[in-house]
TrEMBL record:
Keyword entries, A-Z: Cell cycle, Endoplasmic reticulum, Growth arrest, Membrane, Metal-binding, Nucleus, Transmembrane, Transmembrane helix, Zinc, Zinc-finger
Function: Able to inhibit growth in several cell lines.
The name this protein goes by in its record: Cell growth regulator with RING finger domain protein 1
Encoding gene (name): LOC112632021
Domain RING-type per the UniProt entry, residue ranges: 273-308
The keyword NADP belongs to this UniProt entry's keyword annotation: no
Molecular function GO labels: zinc ion binding
Gene Ontology biological process terms, A to Z: negative regulation of cell growth; regulation of cell cycle
A single GO cellular-component term on record: nucleus
Localization of this protein: Endoplasmic reticulum; Nucleus
Chain segments annotated as transmembrane: 15-38
Pfam family, any one: zf-C3HC4_3
Gene3D superfamilies, A to Z: Zinc/RING finger domain, C3HC4 (zinc finger) (3.30.40.10)
Length: 331
C-alpha cells in the first residue's frame, strides 16, 4: 500500500524525486563531516579531530622522595673473586647490608612478606624473612650525603667461584639500603631499597649490572624501579650540558626523579624534545618507557616517535608549576 502511494505521489508531483535526492545528499554530507557525532574514516578528518578522539590516557602519579641512591663503580672490574665497589648517595644516615649468594625464591618470598606480614624496614627484618638463606653478610654505615665508595667482597678464605649454571638458584649479591634512624622512617614513604646485582663468575660471564631494584614503601607495597630511556645520543647528566642554564635544568630533573647515571639510558641533548628540538623533555611514554616529548608535542602523538609502539599511558616528570620554579631559579 505504501509503495503504491509513493508511485502515485511521484507521478503527480515531479518535485518529489528532487526532494528525495536532496535529502540523501544532505544526510550523506552530514555523515562524512561528522554532523551527527558518528565515527567516520580517519582519512576524512583533520589532525586535531583525530587527536581528540584518540587521546592517550594520562597516568595519575604520586610524587615521593627516595632517600636512597646506589650505583656500581667500575662495573667492568667487578667479579666474584675480586669483589665489587658500590657508591651510595643517601639523604639520611643509612645502613648498607650486602647478602652474598642470596636465595632467589627466599628473596621473593620476603618481598611478599613485606606486603602481607611485616614491614622490611631494618636489616634484621629482611634476614628473618630470608631465613638466613644466604652465604655471607656484611654491613656498612652510610653517612648522610657522603657519596661513599664501599668495597664489598666475599672472605678471602671462601672458595666460591660461581653460583652454578643458569638459571641459578642464588643471586650473586643482594644489597639492602635502610634508614639508620628510626625517626627518619616516619618521614619518608620509601623505607628501604632492595637491589639485585649480577656479578660475573666463572660460569656466567654477563657483565656486572643492577638487575632489579625494589622500592619498599611504609604502607606495605613494593615497586620495581624501571629504567627510563632518554631521547638522543649522549649522557643526560649536568656535566655534559653546554651552558649553566642547561646544567641547572638537567641537575634539577635528575634530582626530582632521584635517578643516578646508571638509571638513565645515555643520550645527547636528551633534554630536548625529539620532535620540535626546542621544548624540554617532560613526558614518559608507556609501555616503552621512552622519555622524548615536551608538553607541547605530547598531545599530537598516539605512537612513540622513536619505536612506533602504540601508547597505553603516559605521565609527566614535572608539573607545570615545578617547571616554572626551575626557570625562575635559573634567571
Amino acid at each position: 500500500m505504501a509503495a503504491v502511494f509513493l508511485v502515485m505521489l511521484y507521478e503527480y508531483s515531479p518535485l518529489f524525486y528532487i526532494v528525495v535526492v536532496f535529502t540523501c545528499f544532505v544526510v550523506t554530507t552530514g555523515l562524512v563531516l561528522g554532523w551527527f557525532g558518528w565515527d567516520v574514516p580517519v582519512i576524512l578528518r583533520n589532525s586535531e579531530e583525530t587527536q581528540v578522539s584518540t587521546r592517550v590516557f594520562k597516568k595519575q602519579m604520586r610524587q615521593v622522595k627516595n632517600p636512597f641512591g646506589l650505583e656500581i663503580t667500575n662495573p667492568s672490574s667487578a667479579s666474584i673473586t675480586t669483589g665489587i665497589t658500590l657508591t651510595t648517595d643517601c639523604l639520611e644516615d643509612s645502613l648498607l647490608t650486602c647478602y652474598w649468594g642470596c636465595s632467589v625464591q627466599k628473596l621473593y618470598d620476603a618481598l611478599q612478606k613485606h606486603v602481607y606480614c611485616f614491614r622490611i624496614s631494618t636489616p634484621q627484618a629482611l634476614e628473618d624473612a630470608l631465613y638466613s638463606e644466604y652465604l655471607y653478610q656484611e654491613q656498612y654505615f652510610i653517612k648522610k650525603d657522603s657519596k661513599e665508595e664501599i668495597y664489598c667482597r666475599l672472605p678471602r678464605d671462601n672458595k666460591i667461584e660461581d653460583f652454578g649454571t643458569v638459571p641459578t638458584s642464588r643471586y650473586p649479591l643482594v644489597a639492602l639500603l635502610t634508614l639508620a634512624d628510626e625517626d627518619d622512617r616516619e618521614i619518608y614513604d620509601i623505607i628501604s631499597v632492595v637491589s639485585v646485582i649480577h656479578i660475573p663468575d666463572r660460569t656466567y660471564k654477563l657483565s656486572c649490572r643492577i638487575l632489579y631494584q625494589y622500592l619498599l614503601l611504609a604502607q606495605g607495597q613494593f615497586h620495581d624501579l624501571k629504567q627510563l630511556f632518554m631521547s638522543a645520543n649522549n649522557n643526560f647528566t649536568p656535566s655534559n650540558c653546554s651552558s649553566s642554564e642547561e646544567k641547572n635544568t638537567g641537575r634539577s630533573l635528575l634530582e626530582k626523579m632521584r635517578l643516578s647515571k646508571s638509571e638513565v639510558e645515555p643520550s645527547e641533548n636528551s633534554q630536548d624534545c625529539v620532535v620540535c628540538q626546542n621544548g624540554t623533555v617532560n613526558w614518559v611514554l608507556l609501555p616503552c618507557r621512552h622519555t622524548c616529548l615536551c608538553d607541547g608535542c605530547m598531545k599530537y602523538f598516539q605512537q612513540c616517535p622513536i619505536c612506533r609502539q602504540f601508547l597505553q599511558e603516559s605521565f609527566a616528570l614535572c608539573s607545570q608549576k615545578e617547571q616554572d620554579k626551575d626557570k625562575l631559579k635559573t634567571l
